[in-house]
Amino acid sequence: AALLTACGSGTVGQTGSGGSQAGSAGSKKLALIPGVQAEPFYISLQCGAQAEAKKLGYELTTQAPQKFDAAMQTQLVNALGSNPPAALLIAPTDDTAMLAPIQQVKARGAKIVEVDTSLKDTSVAASSVSSDNASGGKLAAQTMAKLANGKSGSVLVLDTIAGTSTTAARAKGFEDELKNTPNLKSIGVQFTQNEPDQAASKVTAALSSTPDLIGVFATNLNTGEGAATGLRNAGKVGAVNLIGFDASPSEVEGLKNGQYQALIAQDPASIGTQGVQQAVAAVEGKPVTRNLTAELHSITKADMDANSQYFYKQSC
Ligand code: T6T
What we know:
Layout: E1 2-3, E2 29-33, H1 40-55, E3 59-64, H2 70-78, E4 87-90, H3 99-107, E5 111-115, E6 127-131, H4 133-148, E7 153-159, H5 165-178, E8 184-191, H6 196-209, E9 213-218, H7 221-233, E10 241-245, H8 249-256, E11 262-265, H9 268-283, E12 291-294, E13 297-299
Parallel strand pairs: 2-3, 2-4, 4-5, 5-6, 6-12, 7-8, 7-9, 9-10, 10-11
Antiparallel strand pairs: 1-3, 11-13
Helix pairs in contact: 1-9, 4-5, 6-7
Bound molecules: alpha-D-tagatopyranose (T6T).
């Protein structure tokens, strides 16, 4: 695992098990464990969280796994030790496998706030802050229908890793809504292990097995980047509509040069800000809101200049 050093305002480093005041009454320490390191969505989330922690007089420490992987993330959770910070903000990389390690931190006295992804077991977190991912999928399907403009054809959905709550909800929201557009038919959801190469191969395979493919919905940043590569390799850029989720610098560049027809942008900074607010409320015994959402925005090339505030950051 490596440290996220992109956001300068807070302390970045290991919250060691050797322990200072962590976990004790009156502790002003928060830990953030995102889904993966050095990735614009989680960097933007961290930026929001760090600024809010500073404002509220708390110290936020961030550590992120090298890959979006439950075993790697478990090591970081376990490293919080027997004397954890007052609250842990975490994006669980698996809705089931992360249950036990998170429960252990909770049992040791830390408040738990889920940011972005969540566990299936809703009893663990004091609060969960995320995009309304099902609505994001629905928005993508409506955008796909608009782009098809009455033309008939098949559509491929690219998911990441089974057990990722966010992308699963996007894929389901998309498929449910697509049923309202009879001219478009989903050929199903394919997993890519969140690897761009796998996403590219799935697109290549779909293009040869499904000659009437007219759209791809990529449920996050890596699936989008891979899908764009697959379409580019086949000379199908623009002929097959690509809708991506997220708004990383490379996706925004792709929207500008016609590789994506639309992006569904999240507001990761707001997820971080709200997550810290809930964590601090839980620590201080103030009222906590169980579920909170951040806004989503469908962006096309035509309106991208007016929406540049939703583009993700590489550093704070
Ligand atoms: O789409 C985001 C995040 O919401 C999702 O849970 C995992 O993938 C991203 O981090 C983008 O890479």
